[in-house]
Specification:
five-stranded mixed beta sheet; alpha+beta; single chain; 190 residues
Length: 190
């Protein structure tokens, strides 16, 4: 009994176990990912994931679920002419490898940026949208302070997962424009 009383007395008076402590600061991430409950949020998430160099958020914009069709990427014409089998092997794993490789080549402070213009959404069905846009992708080069710029037009087919109601890019076609390298050329270099 004496030991029990001494133990209780020591616990209560010495270590402050029962006193409230200061809350910890929340962890600060660099993610602005929003659950893609609309097709336009998918596009916003993609732009943000690139700017934030966030591979997980980038890949989350694309179909990668077994209950949905496989992701398809169709490179621009000049890249398809050089790499005719690129469409057959480019899948979600290749998309992740490309983006991870690209991000790893950048310094901690360098960030790519994607600008979209001439946005056009066209409903294909209640669960699918065709999105087309001109793009300008600026990527800092590791050896100089100059940004490499890739320009072209893209077409996405964005579809809705009927099980969870979220939207994903299912199909991506890249179209080059004169006098600029396309996004496909950046992917082919990775």
């Amino acid at each position: 009994m004496r030991y029990l009383l001494v133990t209780i007395l020591l616990v209560v008076t010495s270590c402050g176990v029962f006193e409230p402590r200061d809350p910890e600061e929340p962890t600060k991430g660099n993610s602005s990912f929003v659950p893609p409950t609309t097709y336009s949020i998918v596009i916003q998430n993609l732009v943000q994931a690139i700017a934030e160099k966030n591979t997980d958020n980038y890949i989350s914009c694309f179909v990668s679920s077994s209950d949905m069709p496989d992701y398809i990427f169709v490179p621009s014409g000049e890249i398809l002419a050089t790499y005719p089998d690129m469409t057959s092997y480019w899948n979600i794993g290749e998309e992740k490898r490309y983006f991870t490789t690209e991000i790893a080549s950048l310094s901690e402070t360098a960030a790519p940026s994607l600008s979209l213009s001439e946005l056009n959404y066209e409903s294909l069905s209640p669960d699918s949208i065709s999105f087309t846009s001109d793009y300008s992708l600026k990527v800092p080069t590791p050896t100089t302070s100059i940004n490499a710029e890739y320009k072209g037009k893209l077409q996405f087919i964005v579809i809705k997962n009927k099980l969870n109601g979220l939207w994903f890019v299912y199909y991506w076609k890249d179209i080059s424009i004169e006098n600029f390298e396309s996004w496909s050329s950046l992917k082919a270099k990775s």
